Automatic annotation (TrEMBL):
Pfam families: p450 (PF00067). Keywords: Endoplasmic reticulum, Heme, Iron, Membrane, Metal-binding, Microsome, Monooxygenase, Oxidoreductase, Transmembrane, Transmembrane helix. It comes from Cavia porcellus (Guinea pig). This is Cytochrome P450 family 4 subfamily F member 22. PROSITE patterns: CYTOCHROME_P450. One of its GO terms (biological process) is ceramide biosynthetic process. The keyword Transmembrane applies. GO terms for molecular function: heme binding; iron ion binding; monooxygenase activity; oxidoreductase activity, acting on paired donors, with incorporation or reduction of molecular oxygen. Heme binds at residue 476. Its cofactor is heme. SUPFAM superfamilies: Cytochrome P450. The chain crosses the membrane at residues 18-47.
Length: 547
């Protein structure tokens, strides 16, 4: 008998009897059964892995593959990584098999015909892969980005009215105000200088956070002038999530929350959640006191914000969203709305600075709209009068999509148009950046050409060739909001300033949660003479509870 078995039986107080012998036999049998079961499970995993590998042989993969890291060395989050990715795209134009380590195969889809079966599949067949989004869960909860199944379907139905044109139209005043605040800041920093260089990512990010706080909470944080605890926490959370992705030992939650980063993440989450919860609870109390009709009457003449719309939302059974649900959706909107829009807008301004002929044509559009107006303020109907500006924005989103990848995990086999099959359980990465730079889909993909999106001469291509806001059932619900904000900011910026690229600072791309740069996007900003119309006055917004 094994000494450890004797010791265990002694601890249990079993003396050397026939009963003890039976206990020993039972214990050994249980141990052997556990070992056999573990070995059997391991062999089953090996067999399933071998079977999956056989089914994946029909997919091409890059030649350079490390025995331990797989292809991870080729997909670095920097300029070199994107250049290596482009070399692979020049050879493989549809589906690319890459290995994330020795045992994790990932299929990267880079062609609209092969993206379609995955993006158009139901959320049950191709749900978001939880591994790639799990780090956001403590911050964003079960908002639209991370929820799934019936909860996601219910929330999607309830949130859709929040992005109806009738709700978005009043936000135009907020977009105008926040853009004006950014421009006033530029003019102060310019002083008497004819031109100065500014980091667009820094200024545009604060501008989008400013407008989002007004649109979501009806709160004027003045964050473009001075940082608040809430805004600082959001910026810190985004940075911490990115940093955690590149520290493998922080993938284990127990280790992460013992680290300095983990403690900072918890504190920042608490700040964000406290602010959002207090706004919701105060608004909920006002709604209970006044009733829905009286509350809406008191709101007349003021913009209904995101929290208002969610508090009034009811499903088909008359059930409302809980405070926790509303908090998750508000936090999700703040995260997705500021990061992606600030990235997209910064790259648009970069491209227009790089191509002055397109910049001038956009400027002529906005100058034509502003003729005879007292205020330099765009209205909702003006957005349709900016066709070339819209073309420039779309081409920039093609060339520099804010979100470069979205992931799905297939819960069942998915057939591709050429007869190949994506096996059940495989992670699929819809490579938005790769699709937008696929030479078989976009000729001269590296060239910035707004005329690709000319509505007068539309080009024949798949709707899934251009997916900066994703596509299918889980596409971006806020894309109309983002496009409206970008058009306002671009138009007013070009009306008031001339932009040029700062040649002393090289722009090097850095794909993280969004497509950033290593050292910002620095542009030379030169103020233009006033054209007669004046910038709109700043409007005050009711403050929420103290955070």
């Amino acid at each position: 008998m094994l000494p450890v078995t004797h010791h265990l039986l002694d601890l249990l107080g079993l003396e050397k009897t026939a009963f003890r012998a039976c206990a020993v036999s039972a214990l050994l049998l249980a141990l052997l059964f556990s070992l056999f079961r573990g070995l059997l499970g391991f062999l089953q995993l090996c067999w399933a892995f071998r079977r999956t590998c056989r089914r994946l042989r029909c997919f091409r993969q890059p030649q350079r593959c490390h025995w331990l890291l797989g292809h991870l060395g080729m997909y670095l989050p920097n300029e070199k990584g994107l250049q290596d990715e482009k070399k692979v795209l020049d050879e493989i134009h549809d589906v690319i098999l890459v290995w994330a380590g020795p045992v994790l195969p990932v299929l990267v889809l880079v062609h609209p015909d092969y993206i379609k079966p995955v993006l158009s599949a139901s959320a049950a067949v191709a749900p978001k892969d939880e591994f790639f989004y799990s780090f956001l869960k403590p911050w964003l909860g079960d908002g639209l980005l991370l929820s799934k199944g019936d909860k996601w379907s219910r929330h999607r139905r309830l949130l859709t009215p929040a992005f109806h044109f009738d709700i978005l139209k009043p936000y135009m005043k907020i977009f105008n105000q926040c853009t004006h605040t950014m421009h006033s800041k530029w003019r102060r920093q310019l002083g008497q200088k004819p031109v100065a260089s500014f980091d667009m990512f820094e200024h545009v990010s604060l501008m989008t956070l400013d407008s989002l706080q007004k649109c979501v909470f009806s709160y004027n944080s003045d964050c473009q002038e001075k940082m608040s605890d809430y805004i600082s926490a959001i910026i810190e959370l985004s940075a911490l999530v990115v940093r955690r992705q590149y520290r493998l030992h922080h993938y284990l939650e127990a280790l992460y929350y013992l680290s300095a980063d983990g403690r900072r993440f918890r504190r920042a989450c608490a700040v964000v959640h406290r602010f959002t919860t207090e706004v919701i609870q105060e608004r909920r109390r006002a709604l209970s006191r006044q009733g829905a009709e009286g509350w809406l009457k008191a709101k007349q003449g003021r913009t209904l914000d995101f929290i208002d719309v969610l508090l009034l939302a009811r499903d088909e059974d008359g059930n409302e969203l809980s405070d926790e649900d509303i908090r998750a959706e508000a936090d999700t909107f703040m995260f997705e709305g500021h990061d992606t829009t600030s990235s997209g807008l910064s790259w648009v301004l970069f491209n227009l600075a790089k191509y002055p002929e397109y910049q001038e044509k956009c400027r002529e559009e906005i100058q034509e709209i502003m003729k005879g107006r007292e205020l330099e303020e765009l209205e909702w109907d003006d957005l349709t009068q900016l066709p070339f500006t819209t073309m420039c924005i779309k081409e920039s989103l093609r060339q520099f999509p804010p979100v470069t990848l979205v992931s799905r995990r297939c819960t069942q086999d998915i057939a591709l148009p050429d007869g190949r099959v994506i096996p059940k359980g495989i992670i699929c990465m819809i490579n938005i950046y790769g699709t937008h730079h696929n030479p078989t889909v976009w000729p001269d993909a590296k060239v910035y050409n707004p005329y690709r999106f000319d509505p007068v001469n539309p080009q024949q291509r798949s709707p899934l060739a251009y997916v900066p806001f994703s596509a299918g059932p889980r596409n971006c619900i806020g894309q109309s909001f983002a496009m409206a904000e970008m058009r306002v900011a671009v138009a007013l910026t070009l009306l008031r300033f001339r932009l040029s690229v700062d040649r002393t600072r090289k722009v090097r791309r850095k794909p993280e949660l969004i497509l950033r740069t290593e050292n910002g996007i620095w542009l030379n900003v030169e103020p233009l003479p006033r054209q007669g119309a004046q910038a709109p006055p700043l409007r005050a917004h009711a403050p929420p509870p103290r955070n």
